[in-house]
Amino acid sequence: MAPTRRARDAKGCPQILPTSDILVPAGIIRPITLRARNLPQPQSGQKNYECVFNIQGKVQRIPAVRFNSSCIQCQNTSYGYEGNEMGDLPVDFSIVWDGDFPIDKPASMKALLYKCDAQRDSCGLCLKADSRFECGWCLTEKRCLLKQHCPSAEHNWMHQLRRNVRCSNPRISKIHPLTGPKEGGTRVTIEGENLGLQVREIVGVRVAGVRCDPVPSEYISAERIVCDMEESLLASSPGGPVELCIGDCSAEYRTQSSQTYSFVTPSFSRVRPEKGPISGGTRLSIYGKHLDAGSTVTVMLANEECRFVKRTVHEIVCITPPSANPHPGHAFLKLFIDKAEITNPDVGYTYSEDPTIATIEPNWSIVNGSTSLTVTGTNLLTIQEPKVRARYGGVETTNVCTLVNDSVMTCLTPGIIYSKHQTPETGVHPDEFGFILDHVSSLLILNSTPFTYYPNPSFETLGTSGILEVKPGSPIILKGRNLIPPAPGNARLNYSVMIGETPCLLTVSESQLLCDSPDLTGEQRVTILVGGMEYSPGTLHIYSDSTLTLPAIIGIGAGGGVLLVAIIAVLIAYKRKTRDADRTLKRLQMQMDNLESRVALECKEAFAELQTDIQELTNDMDGVKIPFLEYRTYTMRVMFPGIEEHPVLKELDSPANVEKALRLFSQLLHNKMFLLTFIHTLEAQRSFSMRDRGNVASLLMAALQGRMEYATVVLKQLLADLIEKNLENRNHPKLLLRRTESVAEKMLTNWFTFLLHRFLKECAGEPLFMLYCAIKQQMEKGPIDAITGEARYSLSEDKLIRQQIDYKQLTLMCIPPEGEVGTEIPVKVINCDTITQVKDKLLDAAYKGIPYSQRPQADDMDLEWRQGRLTRIILQDEDVTTKIESDWKRLNTLAHYQVTDGSLVALVQKQVSAYNIANSFTFTRSLSRYESLLRTSSSPDSLRSRAPMITPDQETGTKLWHLVKNHEHADQREGDRGSKMVSEIYLTRLLATKGTLQKFVDDLFETVFSTAHRGSALPLAIKYMFDFLDEQADRRQISDPDVRHTWKSNCLPLRFWVNVIKNPQFVFDIHKNSITDACLSVVAQTFMDSCSTSEHRLGKDSPSNKLLYAKDIPNYKSWVERYYRDISKMPSISDQDMDAYLVEQSRLHGSEFNTLSALNELYFYINKYKEEILTALDRDGYCRKHKLRHKLEQAINLMSGSS
């Protein structure tokens, strides 16, 4: 009986009854009547009823009249909302009586506030609006209005419920695609406005004069028509615009596109690679012409479909299927573009035997992985991106392999996640170990090769507090455990120990590393590198023994006596030498004046030359778009640098229980308290590394891309917590956001990356790209060493050639790839360029305006020197003519081959020979060894200290060189310096280069440090974040302007702009070589110095890059201060406006990343720190109240398959 009584009591409660949509036009005064039940009559002393509306965060209270117990009316008033970004806005409301007692109503019951003219700026969009809105098109006003707002509405107001209503003046804004085969079948998409209200109104669609049949299922009223092309019967159709009519073909209902559609004949001429494994999985590139034509493409390989990946005008990429024939052989290639069938009997693809694995040396690693393996087998060169994999405890990990030749490759072992407390000393065996070689499934698991993982090495801290005092040159003992794994064979772990930035010589035993310390003094941090891990056991305090011994005292006394005698001798000789000294001083002064004049002249000439070059470059770029990367690639390169195919870009192929668990996990992440608890718990773990913090921040931003307004709320809270923690720990406030030591800092970088993309494309991208082009062009005007990366022109002292290089400029007439005689283009090169450098310059000229990823690479091309009609010589960096002196082998240059000015050369597809393979491996190995070290260096100042000796080739014992040999080598005799000036003289070239590039650096800085430059307004995100930092400073009573300035500099210039300036390849589709990288690093350092509030005291020992821009930095600093001041004076942005902007950003980019894949990657950290996170959820009162621990356990159980 109890439930019945409760039900009866509920029916007696006052309540608002559900009703159909409550439609409220904005700005119109009208009442709102609601049906109700059991409404009480207010008694004397009680307040009357009110309707309370919450519109965009603002509360509006309207008196209400109770007609009787079942009816109430919100009195006459008007409602409105800000902005025209939304055509309608659901608004929550409540009915209260006696001040604050709400009447029950259905939670989903809302009022729908709408504006007719918002997002409906054409007749078609207006008439397709919901008929209940009663919006119509006013002919006189040319706006979407309610009937009462349109003058002479009976004649001038169009509404969809009227019969035979049609919008005049249809307009086509875009057609896609713009090309297609004349065989037809192309599905053409036509977008525009006023394109009919129903598909039956569309008549007479003709594309380039050919009939195109509308597809009803793809039609979007008024906005889009999709039609299928019929075959063009003309032998060579000239192409033309799209024409169509709405209803009838009178003038006001007829339209024609401004874009034209062309008929093309797609063809293909070659494929790369030309062979791959029988099991398939090879990423096949098909090259030809007009390959982006039409709407659909199918690639058939021996009657099996090749899985399509992407295509451009010159290339189609697909993944090869397994061969239907189990034996190797030729496979015929056929393309279908719409109804066109394309073949080429001269081009095909060959299926070769699948690769095999014979041995793996060594067959062990450490739990963290990243140790080197040498793998032997067969047919390895048929694989493009080999990987090694391991699976342990249900978690799969992978790492990369590098091909050496067809039978050898080197790999870095994947680590495993060992969840128990300590790895046993005897090691553990993974559940699976094998290789990912395209689609070769037989090598995924190699049970015949047992692989063992031993514990990671660990080290004790230095001394008791992490600081150890030692004398210079004394040995250092680093104690640890598991330093030599108990594995059979002679293989050992490869340790490197750095004292500061200097490596030391090592002796390794089972429990300690013995390090011969370099001759350094002061405090030096000790870093141990092994297997991809970095340990820092502490800091060395290296001091000099200053106690004077008896022999030292005697020596000083004797020295003093000698000094006294010397002073007397000097006084005697002084008068005689004064006259000579004056003459010498005058001669030196003249030499210095001549040197200064020469520098000024060189700077002036170089600037004039570059102006000409940049003018030519600018002219060449007219009509060519700057090669901006698409939004997804740009954000991925910033968030996950170095990872091309990240899981967040792929669909997650997972069981239903995993998908359900991830959706539950997603709901938890959208709970602010859970997300903050999750992040703070991870940051509290000692094993949660800097790399993990960056990874979590990037994965969170990818997962929350569709909810940017929520991500911003979380980011602000994390930053507020970080400020609080910074002040609690009594750290200097200026250190805030200086280093990436929290998830919040990397999230802030990603936040700016998302929200400043448009600003980069419309404003800052152009001066940055021009600076990159100017640096590249200026560097390539002089010699660049292909081995060391040093150049004649440089901004970086560490990358400057410090000796005289004689060279001469040549102009070569180049026949581009696939070009014919008569299509030559003149290209400027210099005679000391290596053949690869020449090929790069020729490709730059032949493919101007083409993004770097869409053009052939130098390694794929041969350079032919054509002499007369029959003689053709292939030029190479190394061949049988290469000069070898002692143990040095010099790369071939144009001067080596005696190529003359005006010679005819051609770029042709590389012809593979046994000599080429052997020698290109040797050269590539030497270069890659240098480049890999270069990439790891973090700043220009560290480049020279890390520059390696050019290591001898293991097979021939020779070392490669190009323009300069390694300075420290024994061959570098003192006598060899006779032809050189003092190397510091060449530092004047830094001044010349700096003066040449000054305009481009100024343009970039001026654009970045301006609130309204090039017609582009300041991005909302910058003003919003700067105001937030000011608000936090106010809240904590921080009045020091330097602290506020530093916070803003660490927030935007350091976290975003420096990253973009140093890495323009994050923004553009370009290639950045080592000399360009070094120059950009100097510009980035200058940028950061300009944002600093501290005064730099310069002296003769200051770094050259600071001396170089010493006069400019005060000017730049004034720009920065003015920029920050102007931003603070701008009107603040309300949270509502910012939320609307963020919602729009989410709408534009919400589908860029696969949210489930991002959640799956994030779940790794839930799995790793499960107990700690569950405990933290238990401790928090809010989390206990909302049972967040229980919900997380549900997700964990679903993931493990136990529920």
TrEMBL record:
Q: Look up the domain of life of the source.
A: Eukaryota
Q: What biological-process GO terms show up in the record?
A: axon extension; morphogenesis of a branching structure; motor neuron axon guidance; regulation of axonogenesis; regulation of developmental growth; regulation of extent of cell growth; tube development
Q: Where in the cell is it found?
A: Cell membrane
State the membrane topology: Single-pass type I membrane protein
Q: Which GO terms describe its cellular component?
A: plasma membrane
Q: Where is the PSI domain?
A: 115-168
Major location (coarse): membrane
User: Is NAD included in the keywords of this UniProt record?
Assistant: no
Transmembrane region positions? 552-574
Protein transport among the record's keywords?
no
Q: Which residues form a coiled coil?
A: 578-620
Task: List the InterPro entries.
Answer: Ig-like_fold, Ig_E-set, IPT_dom, Plexin, Plexin_cytoplasmic_RasGAP_dom, Plexin_RBD, Plexin_repeat, PSI
Keywords of the record: Cell membrane, Coiled coil, Disulfide bond, Glycoprotein, Membrane, Receptor, Repeat, Signal, Transmembrane, Transmembrane helix
Specify the IPT/TIG domain's residue ranges: 169-264, 265-352, 354-454, 456-543
Family classification = Belongs to the plexin family.
Q: What is this protein called?
A: Plexin A
Species of origin: Coilia grayii (Gray's grenadier anchovy)
Q: List the top taxonomic levels of the source.
A: Eukaryota, Metazoa, Chordata, Craniata, Vertebrata
